[in-house]
Amino acid sequence: MSIETPERRDALAVDADLGREDRPEEACGVFGVYAPGEDVARLTYFGLHALQHRGQESAGIAVGDGDTVTVTKNLGLVSKVFRESDLDSLTGGVGLGHTRYSTTGSSTSWENAQPHLSAIGHQVIALAHNGNLVNTSQLRDSLKDNGVRFRSTTDSEVIATLIGHFTQKHNHIRSGIRETMELIRGAYAVVLITEDAVYAFRDPHGIRPLVIGELPQGGWVVSSETCGLDIIGARHLRDLEPGEMVKISADGLEAEQAVPAEKASLCMFEFIYFARPDSIMRDCTIYEARRRMGASLAASAPAEADLVIGVPDSGVPAAVGYAQVSGIPFGEGLVKNRYVGRTFISPTQSIRQQGIRLKLNPLRHAIEGKRLVVVDDSIVRGNTSRKLVELLREAGATEVHMRITSPPVRWPCFYGIDTDSQEQLIASALSVEEVGERIGVDSLAYLALEDMVAATGCEADQFCLACFDGDYPIDIPEAVRRGKLSLESCG
Ligand code: SF4
Question: Which atom of ligand 1 is nearest to the CA of 24?
């Protein structure tokens, strides 16, 4: 038997949308732990706290107790969804957690919160997914004639349903996962639990991140980022490789190359914006990569200014790097309101009109009378950048020189990042000078693609760079391209 807890969902059903930013948004954090004898619900809870930045619309924890799998999930932040009593009731030896930002399905639907529960015969499984499939509707259409039934259009349910179908066919979960991986196309980092085991697998391009760690008291952890390991004292062992599947159970950790790896294509936006600065990807600390991006910008796009400030959070390490190379002092100029996040309380119209002030407040005493270099990670539609520049000028900045630690975003994402359609991307049709005029800066410069890649310490062929160069590592079916690539000929 499994128990779900829908209480409070009606009260949370109004997404005030205060936090929906004018920038790409991540599509989820996933976390799994195998640690019989430990309080896996609390380990998962703290793991999810570390991954909160990857999704703030809903959170869920599932626990396997040797007999079945139980899940508690709801809309809202991790701290809001779980009470002490929820965690006390989730007892067992394996845990699974998820924080969600929706790219498919409604953001206000409790049913779309994960982990997703399903049954394979009499066995209950829970599944959590980060990413986005590009062939979901093709799969549904071609498989429903074979007796596969789908209850929703979310790609996470499609993955769970396929695994259930093929597991029954082979009478073996790993074979079921393997056959599912051979069929699904797109970006996926998936963690799945049964009553007594954790399974994790990653798409053949490795677009979304997934790492493995080891608990000092015994047991293993998988997490979207290493910060999810650090918070519970787990030691980072390695990344899951593209196309790899691991099973963690009483037999230990068993790894296999489930499907052949294809061209490595880790999402570059992990380095620019999504990942927490204290996480490590490809042996590089995200903070250090961002600092080097800023340093590189100072060399390629100098400015006459009195103060360098970063737009919190991802712009701050880059601003430090810019200041180090330029010799212009670094200072705090903007304070982030960390807790407004995804609120489910409707703001009044007058509060809504405060716009960016809900998120950022300028330090007038630091800014007034100064020529500023403002370092940010990206410009998507340009609305937030324009309002930010207005805010800084109102606070007394005499000049604003915007420096961006990525190239212009000209192409939409199909792999689980919620960017706009191409026509809404300000750089898809405007030159750098025109973008600068539109957002009202005194000067604007972007980091060159090769300098951005160099700051990571990796080669360009390790990354997906499609939102900058339009070179998508996984073919996008025509029906999916349509709509989002409306300006394709302008690319
Ligand atoms: S298209 Fe851009 S946001 Fe999407 S996976 Fe590639 S680099 Fe990341």
Answer: 3
